[in-house]
Amino acid sequence: MTTSAKKILVLGATSGIAEATCRIWAAEGASLFLVARNQTKLEAVAADLKTRGAAYIDIAVADLDDTEQHPALLAHAINSLTGMDIAYLAHGILGDQTEAEREFATAEQILHTNFIAPVSMLTWLANYCVQRKAGTLAVISSVAGDRGRKSNYVYGSSKAGLSAFLGGLRNRVDREGVTVLTIKPGPTKTAMTAAMPGQSKMADVNSVAKTIAKAITAGKDTLYVPFQWQPIMFIIRNIPESIFKKLNL
Ligand SMILES: NC(=O)c1ccc[n+]([C@@H]2O[C@H](COP(=O)([O-])OP(=O)(O)OC[C@H]3O[C@@H](n4cnc5c(N)ncnc54)[C@H](OP(=O)(O)O)[C@@H]3O)[C@@H](O)[C@H]2O)c1
């Protein structure tokens, strides 16, 4: 599948990774429906993508935490695009791990935004795609979901839940002609990581986006990006718990 002239729904379109991916799709002449909660940022992204060659652009401002609005929002987006080939779910929050250790409400917010909200949208979108026996659901999870670590286990568990959900969903819908791609980026230079140390070791957002766009075109199931995170996480997943619990990760 090539993405040229494809109809793509982007949820969390102002995310650094999503915006960089959309620039690739715009240059290929794709039609894009962009959803984000910040109208000013969203309009700026949409205007930029139009100049880069997108065949069609429409936008909706929405807080994706509001799951009750999802069915109407998704139906409106697909109506505007007159169909949908790819849904790209990119929104998410890192949250404050220390605060989440003290306050359940903080942990709940991270779990809601990163896990419950995507599950709500994916339930609707998967049923839409199954009915048509076509479509790709490309979803950004994280390497952080591969094993809980003391430095970010609330965020990590939200992504672990999302990755597990995507694995099961793929197992259900693959036979119906629907592709589910689980995207697991390692640390990448975006607004989300701007305050973190080790910037020089983080991946470049444009190169991450390029790899994601290629994986969607290739119909892949899972993507670690950059690729070296696959063997790194294999090792981290296999460290015995008796050792792992003593590490500062
Ligand atoms: N950067 C990394 O190192 C990294 C690594 C692994 C996985 N990821 C994942 O990659 C995805 C994209 O993140 P990014 O790195 O591109 O960070 P980013 O630039 O901070 O993007 C996150 C986006 O999510 C949006 N968002 C958060 N809550 C929302 C809500 N309730 N409704 C609508 N939009 C909401 C934010 O909107 P506002 O701008 O309005 O806040 C922002 O546009 C996320 O799922 C993240 O968890 C990132």
From TrEMBL:
Q: Name one GO cellular component term.
A: membrane
Any one Gene Ontology MF annotation carried by this entry is: oxidoreductase activity
Write the record's keywords in alphabetical order, separated by commas: Oxidoreductase
Q: Which PROSITE patterns match?
A: ADH_SHORT
Entry coiled-coil feature ranges: none
Name the domain of life.
Bacteria
Q: State the family it belongs to.
A: Belongs to the short-chain dehydrogenases/reductases (SDR) family.
Q: What is this protein called?
A: Short-chain dehydrogenase
Tell me the organism: Granulicella rosea
